Predict the structure.
Amino acid sequence: MSSVQGGGRREEGGGIPRVRIGAAFAAAAALVLLPPPSSLLGQDLERGQVLYDKWCVGCHGETGEGDGEAAAFMLPRPRDFTGAVYQIRTTASGELPTDDDLRRVVDVGMPGTAMPGWEDVLSRGERDDVLAYIKTFSRFFDGGSPERIATGRPPRVTDDGLAEGRRLFEEELECIRCHGDAGRGDGTSAPEQTDDWGFPILPADLSENWNFNGGASVEDIYMRLRTGLDGTAMPSQSDVIDAGIITEEQLWQTAQYVESLSPPETPAVRDVIRAARAEGALPSNPDDGGWNQAERYYVPLVGQIIVKPRWFTPAVDGLFVQALHDGERLALKLTWHDASRSPDADWDVYFRGMIRTVADVDGGHVSEQGPDRIAVQLPLALTDGFELPYFLAGDSRRPVYMLQWTSSTDQMQEGTAVGMGTFAAAGGASQLTHAATFADGEWQLQFTRPLTPVDTTQSLTLVMGRPIPIAFFAADGTSGEDHMRGAVSAWYSIYLDVPTPTQVYIAPLVAALLTAALGLLIVRQAQQRERGA
Amino acid sequence: MRRLMATSVFLVLACGGGEGGDGGGGGAAASVAPLGNGTISGVVNFSGSVPANPTIDMGEEPECVEKHGGSPIDPVVVVNDGKLANAFIRVVGGLPAGPYPMPAAPATLNQDGCLYQPRVVGVMVGQTLEIQNSDPLLHNIKAVPTENRGFNISQPREGMSTSRTFTTPEIMVPMECNVHGWMNAYVGVVEHPYFARSGEGGTFTIAGLPAGTYQLEAWHETLGTQTGEATIGPDGTATVEFTFSS
């Protein structure tokens, strides 16, 4: 790129015509001889290595084999650069990625993995230098230019097209074998999948497109279908088109159907979860239509990496929260995706792979699959100050009130805690009710409790009209998450709507009546005056 | 008609190697003449107790179970009368410098009854490997090489056929199906056409060689490798034996 600028630079002071012509020739020659601007040729490899050693080596390792110090705690593992096997490409299965394919991953990262985007950390030039250096780890990069697959344009989205896409997804291409009926990565072949390096991997949850490694647009999805994700079980469908079994348009329809499995907008993360006052009775179970009136709030979760035993590969990376109250009770519904209903014998192969693969330095892995678990915590007492209990289950100074649910026994317990692992179940009769359902890789859990508990030393009075801190914990037994291993949220707030006072409705009515009466009085007086005159 | 006959002769020559019919065999190809017309015949023995092959739970695929008469076995070690099948034998020394003639016919890897047929197949660098689906269900074919570029392609329908080639010699390229985790095959990629797979009777032939002494290596997926030597004399034949044990 710099040569192009140099060759085309205007000669200072005009120069003689012959020189100008020469410069023009040089510029033209440079344009012809130079690789396309997207190529990484001519980068500063030394600077690339310095940057790599600073930013990348911790995960990807000194020799690029994906074996940095942190690698053993990660799943999926950091990329081994030596084989030049890359998931996100615009080239055919088995081909090398283009430089722009590599740039994309470095720029925006790999959502749903530990790989962050570097756009805001390193300059374009620095990122290109690092990429050029990374390419030197593999003998497969020999200076050739891999061919980008031409994809054409997507057809218009129609109901018929989506129905055809669904048919292809379910019957013709049998995507459901891995991705499951609802696309949540819970197909019958899902538990046994490993990547090319033998590490367990899960099929993508196609209903959470914000985690798509290669982007969420229909063009991105189509490209993943065409190229496959090398290094994983996801095959390329290009040969299916070449063999005349499906058309390009049908593959676009498949991509459009996949796109339709996710919400149209990536769920926003909001600080305050509003519990509206329910119209009619509170829902009695997670499938109750009454939940349709409650907004869904997305709460992201991250691995619990502070209190031992820590966990760096959380299975549940977010949940949806809905809340309603009726002035007497609060109903909370949690919805989260989990491909397995733990413990599940069909998933034992995945569980074994997980505990074999993910390093544990905090006391050893559990030896059998545990249950799926959820915990919801609130402060045991509300204070007027801003100070919150420690977000990991509080401490002795500021305990938390906690609700814990376990899939294997389908039990929900109330209690208090003064730190992770200190849960003490509350005594006395519980007024807590709950119901849980599992289908197609999705848990739904509803629980209901009175706003005012019987014993306020063991529970919290839920006050309407003020934000109450709330936080969440989730664990997947099939992924080896036991004890404190799991995913946690930061503190959020839940706000119970205050019932509208009756006077809010009466006052305007009274005002309107008074106004009308006054008007009538004025009119009557005016009429009497006229008559009198 | 003449052209057809010529093609037939060509094919017969091309399929000269290997009991399994899939040896490179040094058959004639258009650009490079055969190096010779000598043949190495061999047998792969097995001594000791034969390890039991695992059964496969194919319950999810009744069509495949049916093809196996109800009780599918994973044919990891196949021994008949002390002879070992599915060993991959190739010449590793003694060859004149190339170029070598390309086998005229493509090699074939078939998915039949949710198993690969054959389990072991050889190709010369650049020779077409034809991958076929004879099952009425979805397979994907994933090649996981280290020296070559891999691939992972979908074959959702019976009768579908896909062709691929390899660029670099590699012993062996594992092939797998991610829909059916039990499916395993191995492709031997060789720089020349002098390779073969031992058939059900443990025998194989490698044809198209000039007179001379050759070093050979036999590979088996779980039993390791064995080496041997064979000298093709003036009569154009040689024999060699390998013995694997458990």
Summary: The interface with chain A takes residues 60, 137-138, 140-144, 146, 149-157, 160-162, 178-179, 181 of chain B (CB under 8 Å). Chain B has two helices and 18 strands. The longest strand of chain B covers residues 38-47.
